[in-house]
Design brief:
GO molecular function: cellulase activity
Shape: globular
Strand order of the largest sheet: 1-2-3
Distance between the termini: 39 Å
Oligomer: single chain
Low-confidence stretches: 1-24
Number of helices: 18
Number of strands: 7
Family: Belongs to the glycosyl hydrolase 9 (cellulase E) family.
Largest sheet: 3 strands, antiparallel
Catalytic activity: Endohydrolysis of (1->4)-beta-D-glucosidic linkages in cellulose, lichenin and cereal beta-D-glucans
Pfam family, one: Glyco_hydro_9
CATH topology: Glycosyltransferase
Mean pLDDT: 92
EC number: 3.2.1.4
Helix content: 40-55%
Length: about 500
Amino acid sequence: MKGCLPLAALSLHALVLLLHPAASSAAHDYADALAKSILFFEGQRSGPLPPDQRARWRGDSAVSDGSLDGVDLSGGYYDAGDNVKFGFPMAFTTTMLAWGVVEFGELMPPEQLRHAAAAVRWGTDYLLKTIAHPNRVFIQVGDPLRDHECWERPEDMDTARTVYDVSPERPGSDVAGETAAALAAASMVFRETDRPYADRLLDGAFRAFDFADSHRGAYSDDPDLKAGGCPFYCDFDGYQDELLWGAAWLRRASRNDSFLSYIQDNGKTLGADDNINEFGWDNKHAGLNVLVSKEFLEGQIFSLQSYKESADSFMCTLVPESSSSHIQYTPGGLIYKPGGSNLQHVTSIAFLLLTYANYLSKTSQYVDCGSLSISPASLRAQAKKQVDYILGDNPMKMSYMVGYGDRFPRRIHHRGSSLPSIADHPQFIACKEGSVYYSSTDANPNPLVGAVVGGPGEDDVYEDDRADFRKSEPTTYINAPVVGVLAYFAANYGAQ
């Protein structure tokens, strides 16, 4: 029809704006948000804290983890607002932090790059401990059922620090494969600044992958391990994607052709063609396709073309006008997936949008959505829209990052944040004694600066209710992808 733009000429950004008119856009200080998003990880640290710890309301905790089993498992991160160390999401968190530094670290101010690398290293130092014993990978510390019965500071923990592991007899290819990915990705972070440590990480990645591939199986298929990890972090989607994900990262970090062959030879049998449009701690398919697409786009390795096609297919689900079955949006324009803790999907997808846009730009490529051709600039615009929503461009007119902006969540579902600090209240607070703080309507005394919470529901509503953990609980795997995303926007948009 004369006078109308053809559908193929519309950008993804324009399409999304047509369907989801945004709240009035505010100016955002992405550099400030970046700094805060990295600081968050210091509030999640377990073990003895270093002298340069900036989240001063935290103290040493769980310093003897693993000692009853004759191993050192101190360190690492608590996954969310509890005091358990779950290896599966912790490894994914570390992978995403490292990937963010690999892709966007050069855009970070030197001080923030140093803090981001320290956040990666806090994860990898622990992951190296989990693979330090032959034929065992330690995957968890803490009894989640007992832990969740208490509301106490990490520094006061007196619940069982049960240790869980996988072995050839009780395999865990999912956790071991993700650990391999994390160590391989992190080796790239330290390759130029600490080569011996990078070599140690890469060697660990080889060993973790060999264990994962040689002893195939999902850790939550074992009744004992299932009792520990489920229903919190069951492997719902199988271990096959973690094998390909681990191999893909080993290929990128080592340039070893055997891993290229592994991806080429095992793609179909391990489900790479299933084209599952998910990406998170349990399902790596969309991230895998984006990661491997880089090799196809830059090296024209045509046996990897299906990965690029699958990456395109995922991006097309973000376009409401494409023929794909598209992802749901809230009325305010936020990507929404049912199940709670929605912003974990938003930050991961925003990261993939930006990263894929970079890969496409460097090779002058577009996303093929059949009748639509989507530009890298359009992918970036969609990522920016999602991040701006998190930072305050939303119907609630509030930031979902603690400490950013004038209005943000103040009653988050987080034990250490909601209880008085050791400095302010040095007396021991027992398991049930913390209940009064859990039930309080007061703001948390220790703001967990930089934490991105689960976020609003499908109606864009957020009540700031500590008890509503699906909305008010922060997690490491929500924050990890947003670090790289904010680095990009801070460098390209600055304080607007």
